[in-house]
Amino acid sequence: MGFLSKAIKSGVAVKAVDVVRREASKPENQRKAKELLQKVSNSARKR
Questions:
Q1: pLDDT per residue over 1-47, tens digit each?
Q2: HSE (side-chain half, CA atoms, 13 Å) at 20
Q3: pTM of the model
Q4: How far apart are CA 32 and CA 2, in angstroms?
Q5: Which residues fall in a compositionally biased region of kind Basic and acidic residues (predicted)?
């Protein structure tokens, strides 16, 4: 049973990485990520 659950978990992890990679390649998501990074870095400078 342990082998089967590990295989299922690794399959889910691989699928999750694929989804993240696909979403990160979209231009609108890249723009949102840059805006978030700028917002976080600006708030860190204020401290």
A1: 688 899 889 999 999 999 999 999 999 999 999 999 999 999 888 77
A2: 7
A3: 0.58
A4: 40
A5: 22-37
